[in-house]
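Continued from yesterday's entry.
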Amino acid sequence: MIGLAIGAAVILYLIFIYNGLVKARQVKEEAWSGIDVQLKRRADLIPNLIETVKGYAAHEKGTLEEIVELRNKAQALPTGDVAGRAQAEGMLSQALGKVFALAEAYPDLKANQNFSELQQSLETIESEIQMSRRYYNGAARDLNVKVESFPSNLIAGPFGFSKAPFFEITNEADRAVPSVKF
């Protein structure tokens, strides 16, 4: 009878661990979905931004084509490719920074209402991407701790649970502190 009670307790504990791993994986996937939504919103604004800038900075064609190419590359990556998507989106963010730097060289563009609204929308989306990224990385951390910790690691391996990659900046230039000169 005692052996049966101990066996039942062990089975219940294993079920508890398994369910915890499932929950952590689902939270991570939901967090990734949040990043994906924000990246899609940003990608949807880029064509409008490009059209607005074209009228004022026609000879900046190379920069504008680079942004379109980077956007298309980022959108073409598979949904689960976190590291690839992080790298592609980092490059896209850098290219978008170049467009906003163009506004300084073109006062008419800087004064354009449509450009200002698009710039404000993109800044808001960038902020939301950062919040989504922090949430995803927290969910990935929680899953990774469960996958690597004893005794849940005994359940994780046989049932196919694996560590989740973090959504992080891979370009060292993006990590650098910008220099500000007055």
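--- second protein ---
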Amino acid sequence: MTNDITYRTRWADMDPNGHMRHSAYADFAADQRVVLLAQWGFDVKRFAQLRLGPILFREETKYLKEVNIGEEIRVDGHLASASEDGSRWTIVHTIFKADGRVAATVTVDGAWLDLDRRKLTVPPAELAEAFKSMPVYEAPSK
């Protein structure tokens, strides 16, 4: 099962300066998370059945290299941390240019929301275990 996804940037991803707009980085990272969850068996339909949803507390993007229209980018996600019960987690997404250079990193802190009670909750054991199988983030050495 792959952890990274390749995309081609579109006109809609661009800003008036001719490079990828700030929110497009977050959109690509979110899509990579959704695809990964579906690969683990937790697609939108399954979350609806469980009455469970992922939520974010924080999202931070570091921009390192310009991305232009029509460029191929690759997005991955690595687990930076997770609570023992899987209820809270941090994922670092790296967005790579086609030549392998890092264009940006998107770091998100999240948790699971019980959609009926509107309160944070512990995910099913198989979801918590799936998260633990995600590659672990290692900060680049300086």
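The first helix runs from residue 22 to 39. The radius of gyration is 16 Å. Will compare against the first tomorrow.
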